[in-house]
């Protein structure tokens, strides 16, 4: 169904609200936070650390909203079996893929992949920050410092001294996980952008604008 413009000319495509405010705010906040974290990654700055914590908080919000949110925000609406994903990709390659109001099957799996990779990035970042006595450690309760001091007084701070080889090995492990998962996330972001462009062209809809306005063409 379509409606006519006010001047009675070209018919306007009927749109329907798909993305609720929480989904849209999450999406663009995540774009900003991840960009800030990535661009500040070489500076070893507090900005990088806090941007990472923002990303982690956003992930938690999205996980909750994926269960209790509006229809198209819920994981049950867009997480499809692998068979449907491959069928959609085959249709996409042939230019005859089905149109979805919410996330298409491939897009749904991309959402999950990005959430997993971002969680790996932020978890490893938190572990690194904690090991280095960074922002999270500084913001912690005084009891943590008391316990650490007690262990130090008892000679139990580390098996190899004040900062044992085991601690250094663990820090190196989390650093490698952090870097690898960040690179995977960046690859997924580029893949996501490519998918958005292809799907927008194929279905003749502006998916970027839809994530701003919340509205998409009905068909």
Strand content: 5-15%
Under the CATH scheme, the architecture is Up-down Bundle
What is the CATH topology descriptor? Fumarate Reductase Cytochrome B subunit
What is the radius of gyration computed over CA atoms, rounded to a whole number of angstroms? 23 Å
**Number of E-state strands:** 4
How would you classify the helix and strand content by structural class? mainly alpha
Gross geometry: elongated
Main sheet attributes: strand count, strand direction, barrel closure: 2 strands, antiparallel
Q: Kindly provide the name of the CATH class.
A: Mainly Alpha
| Biggest sheet: strand arrangement | 1-2
Uncertain spans: 1-6, 139-152, 156-161
- H/E series: EEEHHHHHHHHHE
Identify the CATH homologous superfamily. Answer: Transmembrane di-heme cytochromes, Chain C
Which terms would index this structure?
Fumarate Reductase Cytochrome B subunit, single chain, two-stranded antiparallel ribbon, Cytochrome b561 bacterial/Ni-hydrogenase domain-containing protein, mainly alpha, two-stranded antiparallel sheet, disordered N terminus, 219 residues
Description:
With 219 residues, the chain is mostly helical. It has a single domain, classed as Transmembrane di-heme cytochromes, Chain C (Fumarate Reductase Cytochrome B subunit), CATH 1.20.950.20. Helix content is 68%, strand content 5%. The chain has helices spanning 21-39, 46-68, 75-78, 82-94, 105-131, 135-139, 142-153, 165-203, 207-213, and strands spanning 2-4, 11-13, 15-17, 215-217. It has a two-stranded antiparallel sheet with strand order 1-2. The protein has a two-stranded antiparallel sheet with strand order 3-4. A hairpin with a 6-residue loop joins strand 1 and strand 2 (11-13). The longest helix is centred in the last third of the chain and has 39 residues, at 165-203. It starts with a strand and ends with a strand. Residues 1-6, 139-152 and 156-161 have low confidence and may be disordered.
